[in-house]
Amino acid sequence: MSFQNQTILPAIKNGKTLEEFLNSSYEYGVILDSTLSQLPGFFRAAKKSGKKLFVHVDLISGLKNDEHAAEFLFQFWKPDGLISTRAAIIAKAKQRGVYAIQRLFLLDSNALEKSYQLIEKVQPDFIEVLPGVVPHLIREVNEKTGIPILAGGLIRSVDDVKKAIDAGATAVTTSKQELWVHYSK
Q1: Which CATH number does the domain housing residue 172 bear?
Q2: Which residues form the domain of 26?
Q3: How far is CA 91 from CA 1, 31, 55, 99, 122, in A?
Q4: What is the pTM of this model?
Q5: Which of 18, 37, 41, 59 has the most CB atoms lying inside 10 A of its own CB?
Q6: With pLDDT > 70 as the criterion, what percentage of the chain qualifies?
């Protein structure tokens, strides 16, 4: 499973980065660090441009990160996927037939083990590993779960992207526009 062979999933934080995404060759993008009031404009513009959006549900100010928030998003904007640390959000995305992306923070061994248990239970379509600059853990998570990996967080250079992809990541989520340009089709 891939996103039209995109190495980069552009992360959209505001109107400027939305415009850059809309003018790019990328089909899929990720909304993060946004507000509930910005979502209608983001979705209208994306639909008009034929772009697909994933929403980091946990990072939308004014929206609680629970299954009711997910249902709200589906009723009004029909995102192409949801990203969250919460099992209820992942379950709702799977129920609605869109990409379900489980966010996994590499904090310590205990957190990683708890994440593995959650992942086994909810079976997301993808796992977003943060920070995405730890290639041996990207490889481990991929091998242990058998679920495709997205790498995100602290990706700052072309070399960081290359290392994440070489370690087994399907794609990299980043707000660094210079990386969008470097990897655009």
Answers
A1: 3.20.20.70
A2: 8-176
A3: 19, 19, 15, 10, 7
A4: 0.95
A5: 18
A6: 98
